[in-house]
Design goal:
By secondary structure, the protein is mainly beta. Helix content is 6%, strand content 48%. It has one helix and eight strands. It is globular, with a radius of gyration of 14 Å. The protein starts with a strand and ends with a strand.
Amino acid sequence: MLGLSTHYVPIAVPAGARSLTVGVEAGGGPNPNVKLVVGGPKGRVVRARVHDRGHLQTFQTRLRNARERSSVVLIVTSGREHGTAYKV
């Protein structure tokens, strides 16, 4: 049976911020599936850019309004038997 691990990592953004950059690096093994969501549950998903032979994913976006600044969540999922180490 495959294990499942999902972490919802809230990200605090200063009130005056206009943009955001977040990086997630795999610490060994396969990369976790990662999404960055801004603007709450009905917000938008920011696409990742993959670097360093696929082990580093960065998310970069302009924050369009106060709602997007107030609700930023990084969702990290691993649906594998053995977990994947990562750092943000």
